[in-house]
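Dear colleague,

Thank you for sharing your sequence with our group. We've completed the structure prediction you requested, and as agreed, I am returning the results in plain text so they can be pasted directly into your records. Please verify that the sequence below matches your submission; if there's any discrepancy, let me know and we will rerun it promptly.
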Amino acid sequence: MSTFPADLTGTWDVDAAHSTIGFAVKHAMIATTRGRFTVYSGGATIDSSDPAGSSLWAEIDAASVDTGNTDRDAHLRGADFWNAESHPTITFRSTGVRVDGDTVVTTGDLTIGGKTAPVDLVWEFGGVAKDPYGNVKAGFEGSATINRKDWGIVWNAALETGGFIVADKVKLVLEIEATKRV
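Please find the predicted structure tokens below.
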């Protein structure tokens, strides 16, 4: 989309029951491990006539990580990764929004483990629909590839065959359904 559709103007809240905030990272240099967060909130205020005036925010409970493996989840919550005990919330606050062809890029500050670094989230718009209960919903898919070392997350273990157990690059995957505030 080269511009925001007019019906996107307004404030939207993430519908956590119909959304996923997740990540994917290479493990042992050969396979991808995926995880998601189960507790989060967020939203956006969108100005269709001036997309640069739009904003986005999210708060994620770092301890709500779920990779399908309890030991790995406990390690991710710990000091080697995002130190959820001392820094229980991962946050994102936009600092700019721009339209780039058919995508929207939201630049913002991502804070993990008490450290903040800039991130560009690239979004695709899925559409707007009214649900059977009269709520106006919008769909968005966002992604970014970050280097975990930018947040001081440097733990790793060398592999016998060379390389490391956890890749530095992490793909953030956001599949969002949002509800328009009335």
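Summary note from our side: Residues 70-77 form the longest helix (8 residues).

Kind regards,
the structure core
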